[in-house]
Amino acid sequence: MAEIRLNNLVKQYENGFQAVKGANLEIADGEFLVLVGPSGCGKSTMLRMIAGLEEVTSGDVFVGDRRVNNLEPGDRDIAMVFQNYALYPHMTVRQNMSFGLRMRKTPKAEIEKRVADAVQILSIESLLDRRPKELSGGQRQRVAVGRAIVRQPEAFLFDEPLSNLDAKLRVQMRTELARLHQRLKTTTVYVTHDQVEAMTLGDRIVVMKDGIIQQVDSPLNIYRRPVNRFVAGFIGSPAMNFLEGEIVDGIFQSGEVAYPLNQNGLSGPAILGFRPEDLTIDPSQPKILDAELEVVEQMGHETIVYFQLAAQPMVARLEGNSGSSPGDRLALGLPQGTWHLFESTGEQKRISN
Ligand SMILES: Nc1ncnc2c1ncn2[C@@H]1O[C@H](COP(=O)(O)OP(=O)(O)OP(=O)(O)O)[C@@H](O)[C@H]1O
Ligand SMILES: [Mg+2]
Question: Has this prediction a pTM greater than 0.90?
Answer without folding.
Answer: yes
